[in-house]
Amino acid sequence: MRFLLLFGLLLLQLVSYLLFCKGFFPTKVLLTPAEVDEYRTREPQGYVEPQPQFDQVVVMVIDALRADFLFSNKSRMSFAHNLLNTGYGIGFTAFSNPPTVTLPRLKGITTGSTPNFIDAVLNIAEDDTSSSLGDQDSWIKQMFINGWKINMFGDDTWHKLFPNYFAKTEGTASFYVSDFTIVDNNVTRHLDFELSDEGKMHWDCLILHYLGLDHIGHRGGPDSSNMPEKQKEMDHIIERIFNEVTLKNPNSLFIVMGDHGMNDVGNHGGSSTAETSAALMFVSQKFKKNKPDTHQHAPIMWNDNYDYFSRIDQIDLVPTLSELIGISVPINNLGAFIPHLLDLYQTEEEKRNILIKNALQLKVLLDKSHKMISSFPKTSIPELLEYIQDAKYELSKTSSAYNYFEIYAGLSGYFALTIIAFVLFGLYFKRRFSVAFLDVVFFVTYSANFIASSFVEEEHHMWWFFTSLFVLYIVMKHLRFISTLSELTQLTDVNKINNFIFLVLQLTKHKPLSV
């Protein structure tokens, strides 16, 4: 009878858990390559494929580069400010869709999709069957298909997502958050060759992902004493790339960006303004000629809304970069071409064709989801811009349409059943309360270990402590010592045993290697 009762509780908990998942992980509209032709709308008469503007790209990702770190008067990145003020650079505050952790954000800025929390929990791709994006459409894949050679140095998350697309690569581990220096030096040491005349012959796209600034945030917060020097270091690297690539090749595009921001204590993963406000800057000789209307004087006065220059969605990078270099926009992209960059094109007809390409790609997704926002084709630039924004809104809404009734019902049922299970567990073990009490202490302490990403990364410290404590408890339990003089003398031996166990565990700790 007791077994059936407990089995029924577990079954009901599973149902509550699945109900919560159904509400919290909405179904997204996704296309396969085979479906594109089925839903494709033919281009309007007079459409001509836009000509590429750039033939060489550098993407520099500075992990957790919040918008104020690059644009505000608190920033130490003076050379970047000079690029913005002289017209070489165009700055944006880019909204990073939650969850604001690296893997989902890299997925968003390469595929144009809006990842949800299942991507952070399961560390998986769009079809939920793979740990990489190798089979998913992205600008990385489109570059590879079009014969671009891609070199990547930095965060090894890129290797997990795109294992077969890089011509030359070396990853750095993001696990050791106390490392501010070596993790970035292992990226920068490649620049001497990669930026040389010989090195630039071996790549068309260079990706650099620096982790040091993010690690400083985790350890000391955004106001850490290490933050100004790290910003200066990143600024110097921006200057090197500008001098060696941008100035020497007028057809090159240099992108500096953060994948997400950080909150007031240096963590990220949530949806606060500080966590979702990432910096984004495009740099090119061609911008200086066009003087787009986003041109403002940097640095800008710091504000707690993190509102610097124009605000865009981070996923807008995907169709913008794709069209600027003349490759197909990824089929599941939800982003919009950034209007400020239309000035790169000389004629109204070229600008219209750019927007038509973006609008038709979004219409394919709308047609599959059976959403009709307005008729197509559009003819004028203002109409196309309006259509793209409406389509983007509808598709993004579908991707994040949480069912709050199912979420609350699932959570309520799960917690109610958990309380019942605890009560039954306590009644069953009432004669062995000490064991049950220790189980509860362990359960609560271990659960608290998951409230922050830094705790997860340092989980091994908790296991060292609990392993030592558990062995000590077993020794004490079997010795059955009580507060008598003879048995108190045995406590010294127990302490020696505990000290020995602790020493062994300390000696077996894994320390990061200096490379």
From TrEMBL:
S-adenosyl-L-methionine as UniProt keyword: no
Residue spans crossing the bilayer: 407-429, 436-456, 462-479
Function noted in UniProt: Ethanolamine phosphate transferase involved in glycosylphosphatidylinositol-anchor biosynthesis. Transfers ethanolamine phosphate to the GPI second mannose.
Family recorded in the similarity comment: Belongs to the PIGG/PIGN/PIGO family. PIGG subfamily.
Pathway, per record: Glycolipid biosynthesis; glycosylphosphatidylinositol-anchor biosynthesis
Membrane topology: Multi-pass membrane protein
Organism: Pichia kudriavzevii
Keyword Flavoprotein attached: no
Top-level taxon of the source organism: Eukaryota
Signal sequence coordinates: 1-23
Identification of the protein by name: GPI ethanolamine phosphate transferase 2
Main localisation: endoplasmic reticulum
Pfam families with a match to the protein in the record: Phosphodiest, PIGO_PIGG
GO biological process: GPI anchor biosynthetic process
InterPro entries: Alkaline_phosphatase_core_sf, Phosphodiest/P_Trfase, PIG-G_N, PIGG/GPI7, PIGG/GPI7_C
Location of this chain's protein in the cell: Endoplasmic reticulum membrane
Cellular-component GO terms for this entry: endoplasmic reticulum membrane
Keywords: Endoplasmic reticulum, Glycoprotein, GPI-anchor biosynthesis, Membrane, Signal, Transferase, Transmembrane, Transmembrane helix
